[in-house]
Hints:
This protein is an alpha/beta fold and 285 residues long.
Amino acid sequence: xxxxxxxxxxxxxxxxxxxxxxxxxxxxxxxxxxxxxxxxxxxxxxxxxxxxxxxxxxxxxxxxxxxxxxxxxxxxxxxxxxxxxxxxxxxxxxxxxxxxxxxxxxxxxxxxxxxxxxxxxxxxxxxxxxxxxxxxxxxxxxxxxxxxxxxxxxxxxxxxxxxxxxxxxxxxxxxxxxxxxxxxxxxxxxxxxxxxxxxxxxxxxxxxxxxxxxxxxxxxxxxxxxxxxxxxxxxxxxxxxxxxxxxxxxxxxxxxxxxxxxxxxxxxxxxxxxxxxxxxxxxxx
Length: 285
């Protein structure tokens, strides 16, 4: 089978930096190392670090005083970070620079108490971290219909508001939200450009690739929001799309009659997994 692989597939800058920081800490002799939450959303990477003795903490209470704790790439809430720094000997920050910039931009833009309108997944760790930086009330929505429903329920007319997004959200949908809110709030609306360029590049390339192939494969963690959105985008182009975490999940029956397949991957997918998926696809008749 002919495989066309996206040039922007796999680790983004923020993920690469976070893993480099973790590798540096793991290499220190005698350190007890932990991450607060999953360092990235990829189970194979997490299993590899677990074998190296890296603990994954899910609450401040699990942290012990002699641990070196790394804040995950998605960031954490302000309150949790403060509690960790009080409790642990060493806390290092591996928050993606784009996420950190979004946190600080939200803090500055809402310092006067403006409401935050945030386009994102309410239960995603990045989103929980972002809203912790808002000085005013926060309203979260994950789609245009949810935004419209929220505006119908909340009495925000005449109030200054700030629009921002989780860094891995869809740029085109965000732009449409901006347009609609500008018509409603006018000069009372402040818009923060918080969507990552790496996300935009991957989404645009996935859409362009889907137009050239008979099927798409997206490789990456099932819990990775940006990976799921790549698969959703490809499906929206009307192309049969398979989302796999590893090459072992590929089923030849899904590619019956397919001569050309497109391959892309989320920002937390290791190159080794992408390579394995590509090799397996090329071996299919």
